[in-house]
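Quick log. Single chain, no ligands specified.
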Amino acid sequence: MTDLHAFVAPPPSSKPEAQAQAQAQAEAIDAASACLDRFTAAFNASDAAGMDAELHFPHLMLSGAQRLDWASPGQHPADFFDQLKAAGWARTQYEKKEPVLAGSDKVHFVVTYTRRDAAGAVLSTHVNLWIVVRAGGRWGIALRSY
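-> predicted structure:
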């Protein structure tokens, strides 16, 4: 009988290879996390084009059973930030970015963030799954599940 763990994640053939894989994984997590930081900096600057620069297209968002596909940049509604600000939003802050699955070209994060008002009070807390991939030589967010 085959061990399922060995089937889905066979052990590396050598210690140096395992160390190289661990290093590549750590570098991928750092690079993917930096992409998330740039995305949120653009979000906090109300810079939709800057946010788009951190996405890969087509871009997929899931909310419950609903799916939203963006084929290209420029899909944020024109009043997106106005609506957030009207609700009291001043900034978004990561509470946690936990890598839960990582390879050299893809990292899945469970992202916990808060939306806050100008005084720093929490307006809402969100826990999402975001997938960041390296494609075309750059890291970008490919999927966000809300």
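The chain has a mean pLDDT of 93.
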